[in-house]
Amino acid sequence: MSIVLDCPTKGAMRFGCAQAGCPACLEALLQEHSGLVYWMVMHQAGRKTAYADLLQAGRIGLWRAILHYEVGRGSAFST
What we know:
- This protein is an all-alpha fold.
- It has a domain at 34-68.
- It has helices at 13-19, 23-32, 34-44, 51-68.
- Helix 1 packs across helix 2 (23-32) and helix 3 runs antiparallel to helix 4 (51-68).
- The longest helix is centred in the C-terminal third of the chain and has 18 residues, at 51-68.
- The chain is elongated, with a radius of gyration of 14 Å.
């Protein structure tokens, strides 16, 4: 069985779509903003926590941030 992850929703509207349960929008946002996680992990690397653990914690944090982000508040997601 193949799962097709495709949704026509674009831009900031993806947040609402992902929050409503659209796996395609959630995956697109996770990929689009994964650079934030890598940037943070690189700044924390070398500490006592393993790189893979930091990366996983960062991905979970990104996932939670996407699900709770409020587009109407006027701030960019990356801030």
